[in-house]
Amino acid sequence: MNAKIIPLDYVNDLMFEMEKAFWDERGKGARFRMTTLGREYFKNKIQPLIQSADIDQIIHSIEGVLLREGIVARVTYSREDRIFRLRMEGCVHRKVEDRLVSLNIEPFACMPANLIVLAIEEQLDRPVELAEIKLEDGACQLLLVLFDQRPTLG
Amino acid sequence: MAQAPVNIVVCGKKDVWDMPYDTSAAIENILLMVTALGLGACWVIAPCIDIRDEERMKALLGIPEGYKAVSVISVGHQTRPHRQRPRLPVNELVFTEKWGEPYYKEQA
Lengths: 154, 108
Known about the structure:
The complex is a heterodimer of chains A (154) and B (108). Chain A has 154 residues and is an alpha+beta fold. Chain A has a single domain, classed as Muramoyl-pentapeptide Carboxypeptidase, domain 2 (2-Layer Sandwich). Chain A is built from 5 helices and 4 strands, in the order H-H-H-E-E-H-H-E-E. A 4-stranded antiparallel beta sheet of chain A has the order 1-2-4-3, with helices on one face. The radius of gyration of chain A is 16 Å and the shape is globular. Chain B has helices at 19-36, 46-49, 51-61; strands at 6-13, 40-44, 67-76. The termini of chain B are far apart. Chain A binds chain B through residues 21, 23-29, 32, 103-104, and chain B through 12-20, 51, 65-66, 68.
């Protein structure tokens, strides 16, 4: 089967059912078990393109891939110290989030956001948390928090 | 299960971080108390193994969407003494510093 002709509704329906099943199993705890969703895509499509350790450059590289592959239509972001606010418009997976919200389930996984988290962790070895996913008309507002260093054991 | 005088259905609220583990700890406490009262119990895990069993149980009891039916604890009077289950040697279970480095050097 040609990957380009797989119907988007088919993909999103499966993603919704799998996320819903995971929510049913783990409840709110599902959120921190989905933080590596997209890791394979990151390794194959994103990581080879990242040449810089500059955060703006990293996000710009990821934005380029997401737009080129048609995963999102537009990415804008602002940064205040350790807080990143990203706005992703026209995400192909938006229907998944809408269906979760229709069941009063707060969205808990975002592959495009995970790509940024994975890239920063990989390139800068600094932990990043996706703190919030807010749905707006045609866009998702994402809040990411960047930490200085990882907690250590002893 | 059908013959047990009491079946306790343990449900977990999904809007918390550690629902399966919280409810499992609660189940263990229920089992300890049942035993302390001189009764017997069986932890029936079917609902947390096959989603179809959980769906049937939730429909039967009217359990709302925001809760998971985790397990059933069947409680009754024991019909036979408890049989000791096979145990792994403790030096294969308890490690120090790294997995595989036995804490107990000799079999306890």
